[in-house]
Amino acid sequence: MQGDEFAELKADIASNGLHEPIWLHPDGSIIDGRNRHRACLETGTKPRFRTWNGGGSLVSFVVSMNLHRRHLSSSQRAAIALDVLPMLEAENPPGRPSENSQRIDQLSGRNTDQAAKILVTNRQYVSDAKRIQEQAPELLEQVRSGGLTIPQAKRELKERKREERREENRQLVAAAPEPVVMADGQTFQTIVLDPPWDWGDEGDVDQFGRARPTYVTMSIDEIAALPVPKLAADNAHIYLWITNRSLPKGFHLLERWGFRYITTLTWCKPHFGMGNYFRGSTEHILFGVKGSLPLLRKDVGTWFSAPRPGKHSGKPPELYELVESCSPGPWLEMFSRTERPGWVVWGAEVGNHL
Question: Where are the domains of the chain?
C-alpha cells in the first residue's frame, strides 16, 4: 500500500486498533499482513500475531485470507489467478526434467483448476485470461482494474484479429494484378455478386409493379457462363443476391458454378417495395460453399435489417461488413457499383468490365 490508501489504514488502526492478526510462517516470516504490521509500527500500536499451522497450501491460505477483503468481479479474480499460478507451480513442481510432457501438462492443468478454485472464479475464465495476457496484455490490465470483463476483452481481441486479417487481405488485393488477368489464375475465397437479371423469362415484361433497371441486363444463360468456377478457390464461399421471384434461378446457378447451397440470408427492408402480387419488403442472398470452408464466426443469424441505399437496386453496406467478418479474403465483388476498400471489384460503374 502507498499514499492515501496506506494513510487510511494507519488512521483506522490508530483509532480502532488492529482487528485482524498478522499471520506468520512457522519460520517467523510474515505471510499475510505486511501493510498492517508496518502501520502498527508507524502508529505505535501493539501488533497481534498468529502462526500458520503449515497444513495444506500456503498459497491457498494467503489468497483466502485476502480475498474476502476485496470486492472483485469474477473476471478480476481470473486475472489475479494468473499471479497465483506461478506460486502454485512452485509448490507443485513437475519434478525431474526427464518426466514426460503429459505428466507436466497434467500438473499444469491441476494448478489452473486450483487457482480458479482458490480465487472463486471460472476455470475457463482463467484460461481465457492467460490467452489475453499472451496476446494483448494491455487488455488484461483493463480486466484487472475492472474496466473490462473477460468476455468483453475476448470480443475486443477477436475484433483485432479480424482487422488484422482484413488488413492482410487489403494488402493482398492491392498487390494483385488487374481483374482480367485474375481470371487466368488468381482465385478468391469469397465472392459476392448481384447479377443484372433479365426478368423477361419470368413473365414480367411490361407488367406493372416491377421497377425497370437502368443498366444492361443479362440472360440466365449469360450469367451462368460467367467464369465464377475459375475465380473461386478450391475452398470458397459465395453470396448471390437474389429476389424472391428469381430464387429458382439462384439455386441453378450455385449448382452450375460448383457450390453447395447452405442457407439463405434475408435483408429485411424498412418499407414495402413494388410487386405484382405481394409487395416486396425482403431480398435474399443465397450462401453456398465450395469444398470445405467454415465461417470465421458462429454468432450470426440469417436475417438483417438495413435501410435502402439511394440508387436503384443498391445494396446495403451492412451486408459487406457481415461478409468481411464471416468469410476470409481475398474478396471479390462482381457487378459492383462502387469501389470497396480491401476488395477486388468488377462492374461497369467502377470502370472494370468482364
Answer: 3-158, 176-350
What does the alpha-carbon distance between residue 348 and residue 346 come to, in Å, rounded to a whole number?
Answer: 7
Q: Determine which helix (DSSP H) or strand (DSSP E) holds 313, and give its type and residue range.
A: none
Identify the three-state secondary structure at position 231: helix
**CATH placement of domain 176-350:** 3.40.50.150
Cα gap 170→302, rounded to integer Å: 27
Give me the sign of the Cα torsion angle 8, 10, 14, 19.
positive
CB neighbour burial string for 208-226, b if at least 16 within 10 angstroms, e if fewer: eebeeeeeeebebeebbeb
Q: Is 339 left (phi over 0), alpha (psi -120 to 50) or beta?
A: beta
| 347 Ramachandran zone, left/alpha/beta (phi>0; psi -120 to 50) | left
Q: pLDDT tens across 145-184, in order?
A: 889 999 999 999 988 887 776 676 556 545 544 444 444 5
Grid coordinates representing 32 are: 499475510
Is 323:192 a contact under the CB 8 Å cutoff?
yes
pTM as predicted: 0.51
Cα–Cα–Cα angle for 161, 129, 108, nearest 5°?
A: 120
Buried b (16+ CB within 10 A) or exposed e, 150-167: beebbeebeeeeeeeebe
